[in-house]
Design brief:
Helix content of chain A: 40-55%
Shape of chain A: elongated
CATH class of one domain in chain A: Mainly Alpha
Number of helices of chain A: 5
Strand order of the largest sheet of chain A: 1-3-2
Radius of gyration of chain A: 23 Å
CATH architecture of one domain in chain A: Orthogonal Bundle
Order of helices and strands of chain A: HHEHHEEH
CATH superfamily of one domain in chain A: Winged helix-like DNA-binding domain superfamily/Winged helix DNA-binding domain
Largest sheet of chain A: 3 strands, antiparallel
Number of strands of chain A: 3
Oligomer: homodimer
CATH topology of one domain in chain A: Arc Repressor Mutant, subunit A
Distance between the termini of chain A: 27 Å
Strand content of chain A: 5-15%
Largest interface: A-B, 60 and 59 residues
Amino acid sequence: MLNYQVAAPAPLDLAFQALADPTRRVMVERLSQGPASVSELARPLDMTLSAVVQHLAVLEASGLVRSQKIGRVRTCRIEPQTFTAAERWLSERRASWERRFDRLGAFLAETEAETGADDDPATPSAAPGVRRRRKKT
Amino acid sequence: MLNYQVAAPAPLDLAFQALADPTRRVMVERLSQGPASVSELARPLDMTLSAVVQHLAVLEASGLVRSQKIGRVRTCRIEPQTFTAAERWLSERRASWERRFDRLGAFLAETEAETGADDDPATPSAAPGVRRRRKKT
DNA sequence: CTGATACTTAAGTGAATGCTTAACTATCAG
DNA sequence: CTGATAGTTAAGCATTCACTTAAGTATCAG
């Protein structure tokens, strides 16, 4: 069970990072309505073509967008898979706390009927503090 | 219909930016299982408490996490709303291209029956190139 | 009061970002 | 061939980021 975390950029890092920029989200919004060329993506944006190309590079590196060049025109389109990965991460977290709320709800409903308190399922375990230092000796 | 885009950081910028960091995602994963103190969040992380507090500040600024201090312990918990906003943005984009695929599917099914070709609904409109320069004269 | 615990805050640093300008390389139209 | 179009690539630069160390400030236990 190796995780990235050290030195290698996890796919989700790149995806969320790419989506964090408003310019790039505008580009993704445009592409979600259908493929577009680079200059088409650039049209509504208040910056040089060069900057747009750099944003595109970020989107491609993240896997959210794919492109191919035909003649002198590069056509870009959305790559659904990476997109879905980001969506899934979010919904999994939500599932996690919603499960917890359900349990809490059940607990409250139970103690409402017969007042015999147990252990609060939403309370953190509160452990002693041990500090770490980074690898650097 | 004013949008952020200029000078002010849109809520989604902050949310996606916050989620782009693996350390912060670990923190969010922990919190999605229930509230936790700062040192509890720091325990599995290979960095100083100080750094964790700074990550927490980013998460709070993004609205993904909320915290309150009782005595000397700060308890952190997930704030579902902002989370949902990010999820919604993603699913709306997906809805957009899925609608397009449906139309394409319908179009193909139609031309399969009676071969009378029209205009490809997935093809970009290809307009002339006009370059902008940033505000700076 | 005294010492640990649980953060807080400030300053500094190297690397990553989001641009710009400038100079270039392929198409494609005539 | 010639000029416009579409994109590419390389510097350079101001900011922001993700840390670190260092020096606090409130609790709380004894």
